[in-house]
Each structure stands twice: as C-alpha cells, then as structure tokens.
Amino acid sequence: MTDVSTLAPFHLNEGAEADGSHCLYLFEMDQVADVFKEHNAESNGHGWESLAESLVHSHMPESVAKLHVGSEGDTFVVTSTDLTALTELAVLLHSAFHNRELLSHFIRTADPRFLDR
Fold first, then answer.
1. Can you tell me whether residue 33 is helix, strand or coil?
2. How far apart are the first and last CA of the chain?
3. Cis check: omega of the bond before 61, within 30 degrees of 0
4. CA dihedral 105, 106, 107, 108 (to 10 degrees)
5. 52 burial class (0-12, 13-18, 19+ CB within 10 angstroms)?
6. What is the layout of strands, in order, in the sheet containing 22-26?
7. What's the pLDDT tens digit per position in 80-100?
8. Segment 8-63, tens digit of pLDDT
C-alpha cells in the first residue's frame, strides 16, 4: 500500500473500483493554478488531465494504454489496473506540483495535442 502522505495533495486509492482498478485523484489544485494560467493553460481537472496525458506520452510511453483519464472540471482522475504505472505517474505529477519551475517546464513543453495553450 502506498503511503498517502508521500503523494499529497494527490490521492491514490488502491483497488478502489469494482474491476480492480486503482484511482489517482487531485482535488486541491488552486495552489499552483497561477502556473497554468501563466502559460494560458486550464488550471482545473481538465488541465491536469491534459498535462498528465502529455507526460505519459513523453516520459512513460509504455504506459499509454494502461492509464485511463476521466477528469471533471474540479477533479483530476486517472484509473488503471496497473498500480506500478499509476504510481509512476503520481510521483511525476507530485514532483511537478511541489516544484513550480518543473511544473512550468512541463506545461511549457507539453505536447499541444494534449495541452492546448
């Protein structure tokens, strides 16, 4: 089981879904909304989803088919039956959330197919 505090403010629910999927959530995104806005990107669940899709394609291409996004305006959500892939994404996003320069870099260099700016 993943230590919840190590990924905060992201939440990783292991085996939360009936099909055995695990879920990664983010509700509290206001702390870094200005970084997204600085780059003309959405700072809500859809913006985080777009950033995550870009990062998965560029940093974790072997996991593209394993991760499934389903965010809403105020909630970022990714599910997967592959806990390792989901945890790898969680660590990557957590690092960016807590390092504004890294987050800015990821947004700036995101694939425009995923993150429209």
1. helix
2. 37
3. no
4. 40
5. buried
6. 10-13, 22-26, 76-80, 68-69
7. 999 999 999 999 999 999 999
8. 999 999 876 677 889 999 999 999 999 999 999 999 999 999 999 999 999 999 99
Task: Give the helix, strand, coil percentages of the chain, each rounded to 5.
Answer: 50, 15, 35
Q: Which two tokens stand for residue 27?
A: 């509700």
- And the tokens for 4? 């919840």
The strand pairing partners of 80, in sequence order, are 22
- Alpha-carbon distance of 9 to 90, in angstroms, equals 10
Number of residues that make up the chain: 117
The C-alpha atoms of residue 11 and residue 45 are separated, in whole angstroms, by 14
Report pTM: 0.91
